[in-house]
Amino acid sequence: MSGRLAVVGLGPGAAAWRTPEAVERLAGASDLVGYGPYLAMVGEEDSSAVRHEFDNREEARRAELALDLAAAGRDVVVVSSGDPGVFAMATAVVEALDAGGDRYAGVDLTIVPGITAASAAAARIGAPLGHDFCCISLSDVLKPWPVVERRLEAVACADLVVALYNPISRHRPWQLGRALEILRAQRAPDTPVVLGRDVGRDGESTRVVTLGTVADAEVDMRTVVIVGSTTTRAFVDGRGRTWAYTPRTYPAAD
Amino acid sequence: MSGRLAVVGLGPGAAAWRTPEAVERLAGASDLVGYGPYLAMVGEEDSSAVRHEFDNREEARRAELALDLAAAGRDVVVVSSGDPGVFAMATAVVEALDAGGDRYAGVDLTIVPGITAASAAAARIGAPLGHDFCCISLSDVLKPWPVVERRLEAVACADLVVALYNPISRHRPWQLGRALEILRAQRAPDTPVVLGRDVGRDGESTRVVTLGTVADAEVDMRTVVIVGSTTTRAFVDGRGRTWAYTPRTYPAAD
Hints:
Number of domains of chain A: 2
Distance between the termini of chain A: 66 Å
CATH architecture of the largest domain in chain A: 2-Layer Sandwich
Largest interface: A-B, 85 and 85 residues
Radius of gyration of chain A: 20 Å
Low-confidence stretches of chain A: none
Helix content of chain A: 25-40%
Mean pLDDT of chain A: 96
Oligomer: homodimer
Strand content of chain A: 25-35%
Number of helices of chain A: 7
Largest sheet of chain A: 5 strands, parallel
CATH class of the largest domain in chain A: Alpha Beta
Structural class of chain A: alpha/beta
CATH superfamily of the largest domain in chain A: Tetrapyrrole methylase, C-terminal domain
């Protein structure tokens, strides 16, 4: 038997940001595998496939079930939000493929990229990622916290714009505060910080606050946090709308 | 008069990766503004708009013309490849909006995000961006080269995966070699390096080489270069296909 498996990025949520390749794979699938809220973003009209729903933390189990189904000849889609390659399901599936060896030799695997949360939030507010930037997950479930601190210190000193994924959760309440403290040591209090929450979904909001005043309480696990560099600028346009961007030009040292 | 302006990301090129929002704005536009090769990615069937073609280096002039046309009541699209927010036209347009003040108060501006080159190349080869990473442009046209070196040293030490944009060109022949030298000082010769060329376009290729052997001559301005971290791994699957990924789990220090 030989089946196929696509790890599909839905993008942030809105149908207007879902690629034709994602739509086609969902429509053709026999089985969808995913975290419940992501499966819920796929309507019955988008896919009539059997749905295999998992808890958020069961990434490895999701990946194995998907590969097993595909190895048995099914047409499987692992549903991911955003870009599956950025802190999402593509890694878990490729890890399981690596571990599985010849067991999955029959599986034709495709990763279907999507628009990641930082790109979507950036688009809503201007162009904060228009210059060198990094994406760092604040989750220390699979990575020691000291590694996160070391990385934040390095990118703060190197003046990169920093997009923080998985900024906070019930089980990880203090990590964001510590991360902001590290960034504050290198950047001015008026540095723009973009908070993009549920971008591309109902009730979305994207706003600009400052590094000096941003509070943990304004951020939840559905928020991506973009901390500007020393050159990132915010302004209000002639229509009263607030924008933030990181200029293309970086000044020479004095 | 009040017009509108969208800075549209086409994604890497393939129609299967172009979002419905991008398609809709192109179809409705009265004017397209862009670098020639990007305008050429928009077929006559996609848009019957007047086309304003510019040279690659004329970003500021492109942005101003687009805003001027929109301020005069036109429905304008600035055409960008990839994600316009990542080393592309969104920044130039928002900069010009900032500089223009009330002159552009009539313009309704939207940034339409797209899939950026690093996401597309990553998808073709697995999940090299599955863990913390950064995107750095090697162009020193608008940024002093010492800033680039300082950033590369910082992210190399912090063990981030590094996606290099604008890696090399006729006018910038040596910068990539120097960047690789900096990364080689911190990472082993067998570190996987992904070279994604023209991903999503005719004649595309994505392959894995190593940091120890990658040569400047394998890279051109249409290539995105993803240099793995110390944990990034490459393997050949049961079908003989090569994959690369950065595991979700990062080891604790000894």
